[in-house]
Amino acid sequence: KKIETSILGDLASDNRHSVYYNEVIDNDLKLLIIGDSYINSYLLDNFAESFKYTYMVLGNYLIDDSLIELINSLRPDIVIIENAERVDIQPAINEFVKNINKRLNNN
Questions:
Q1: Element (H, E) at 33
Q2: Between 20 and 30 A from 20 (CA), which of 27, 37, 47, 84?
Q3: Distance between CA 93 and CA 74 in Å, rounded?
Q4: Would you say 58 and 17 are in contact if contact means Cβ atoms under 8 Å apart?
Q5: Are 97 and 62 in contact (CB under 8 A)?
Q6: Which of 104, 92, 107 is nearest to 17 (CA)?
Q7: The whole model's pTM is what?
Q8: pLDDT tens digit string along 25-57?
Q9: What's the CA gap between 49 and 26, in Å, rounded?
Q10: What is the per-residue pLDDT across 84-106, written as a single tens digit (0 to 9) for each?
Q11: Contact, 82 vs 49, CB < 8 A?
Protein backbone atom coordinates (compact mmCIF):
# COMPACT_ATOMS: atom_id res chain seq x y z
CA LYS A 1 0.00 0.00 0.00
CA LYS A 2 1.14 3.51 -0.65
CA ILE A 3 2.01 5.41 2.48
CA GLU A 4 -0.41 8.32 2.73
CA THR A 5 0.65 11.65 1.27
CA SER A 6 0.20 13.29 4.66
CA ILE A 7 3.05 11.15 5.98
CA LEU A 8 5.27 12.24 3.09
CA GLY A 9 4.25 15.87 3.29
CA ASP A 10 7.28 16.91 5.30
CA LEU A 11 9.70 14.99 3.07
CA ALA A 12 9.13 16.86 -0.17
CA SER A 13 6.82 19.40 -1.71
CA ASP A 14 6.62 17.36 -4.92
CA ASN A 15 3.86 14.78 -4.39
CA ARG A 16 5.21 12.57 -7.16
CA HIS A 17 7.78 11.20 -4.73
CA SER A 18 6.31 8.24 -2.89
CA VAL A 19 7.00 5.42 -0.49
CA TYR A 20 5.18 2.10 -0.65
CA TYR A 21 5.08 -0.39 2.21
CA ASN A 22 4.05 -3.96 1.42
CA GLU A 23 2.89 -5.49 4.68
CA VAL A 24 2.11 -8.93 3.22
CA ILE A 25 5.34 -9.71 1.36
CA ASP A 26 7.63 -12.24 3.00
CA ASN A 27 10.92 -10.37 2.55
CA ASP A 28 12.67 -7.27 3.86
CA LEU A 29 13.89 -6.03 0.49
CA LYS A 30 14.06 -2.33 -0.32
CA LEU A 31 13.83 -0.89 -3.83
CA LEU A 32 14.82 2.65 -4.74
CA ILE A 33 13.53 3.94 -8.08
CA ILE A 34 14.81 7.19 -9.51
CA GLY A 35 12.73 7.90 -12.53
CA ASP A 36 10.16 9.97 -14.34
CA SER A 37 6.44 9.92 -14.99
CA TYR A 38 6.68 6.81 -17.19
CA ILE A 39 7.73 4.46 -14.39
CA ASN A 40 5.54 6.34 -11.90
CA SER A 41 2.46 5.93 -14.11
CA TYR A 42 2.94 2.48 -15.61
CA LEU A 43 5.34 0.31 -13.63
CA LEU A 44 5.59 1.46 -10.02
CA ASP A 45 2.70 -0.61 -8.67
CA ASN A 46 4.15 -3.74 -10.26
CA PHE A 47 7.50 -3.19 -8.58
CA ALA A 48 5.91 -2.36 -5.23
CA GLU A 49 4.24 -5.79 -5.15
CA SER A 50 7.62 -7.51 -4.73
CA PHE A 51 9.41 -5.41 -2.10
CA LYS A 52 8.78 -4.57 1.56
CA TYR A 53 9.64 -0.92 0.83
CA THR A 54 9.60 0.80 -2.54
CA TYR A 55 10.88 4.37 -2.69
CA MET A 56 10.05 6.39 -5.81
CA VAL A 57 11.96 9.62 -6.36
CA LEU A 58 11.11 11.67 -9.41
CA GLY A 59 14.55 12.46 -10.70
CA ASN A 60 16.67 13.91 -13.43
CA TYR A 61 18.98 10.89 -13.59
CA LEU A 62 22.20 12.61 -12.65
CA ILE A 63 24.12 10.62 -10.08
CA ASP A 64 25.34 13.45 -7.94
CA ASP A 65 26.08 13.74 -4.24
CA SER A 66 22.43 14.03 -3.20
CA LEU A 67 21.47 10.77 -4.90
CA ILE A 68 24.53 8.98 -3.56
CA GLU A 69 23.56 10.27 -0.11
CA LEU A 70 20.03 8.93 -0.55
CA ILE A 71 21.32 5.54 -1.64
CA ASN A 72 23.68 5.41 1.34
CA SER A 73 20.90 6.41 3.75
CA LEU A 74 18.20 4.04 2.51
CA ARG A 75 20.60 1.19 1.75
CA PRO A 76 18.29 -0.32 -0.87
CA ASP A 77 18.85 -3.83 -2.16
CA ILE A 78 18.18 -2.64 -5.71
CA VAL A 79 18.40 0.79 -7.37
CA ILE A 80 16.62 1.43 -10.66
CA ILE A 81 17.36 4.59 -12.62
CA GLU A 82 14.80 5.07 -15.38
CA ASN A 83 14.79 7.77 -18.05
CA ALA A 84 11.96 7.99 -20.58
CA GLU A 85 11.79 11.79 -20.72
CA ARG A 86 14.01 14.70 -19.83
CA VAL A 87 13.18 16.74 -16.77
CA ASP A 88 15.28 18.90 -14.49
CA ILE A 89 14.00 18.93 -10.95
CA GLN A 90 17.25 18.72 -9.02
CA PRO A 91 15.98 21.13 -6.32
CA ALA A 92 13.05 18.79 -5.57
CA ILE A 93 15.41 15.81 -5.31
CA ASN A 94 17.73 17.72 -2.99
CA GLU A 95 14.80 18.68 -0.76
CA PHE A 96 13.56 15.07 -0.58
CA VAL A 97 17.02 13.71 0.20
CA LYS A 98 17.67 16.28 2.94
CA ASN A 99 14.32 15.66 4.63
CA ILE A 100 14.30 11.87 4.41
CA ASN A 101 17.82 11.79 5.82
CA LYS A 102 16.66 13.85 8.77
CA ARG A 103 13.80 11.42 9.32
CA LEU A 104 16.03 8.33 9.03
CA ASN A 105 18.64 9.76 11.40
CA ASN A 106 16.07 10.71 14.04
CA ASN A 107 14.40 7.27 14.15
A1: strand 30-35
A2: 84
A3: 14
A4: yes
A5: no
A6: 92
A7: 0.68
A8: 999 999 999 888 788 788 888 898 999 999 888
A9: 11
A10: 755 556 677 778 788 888 888 87
A11: no
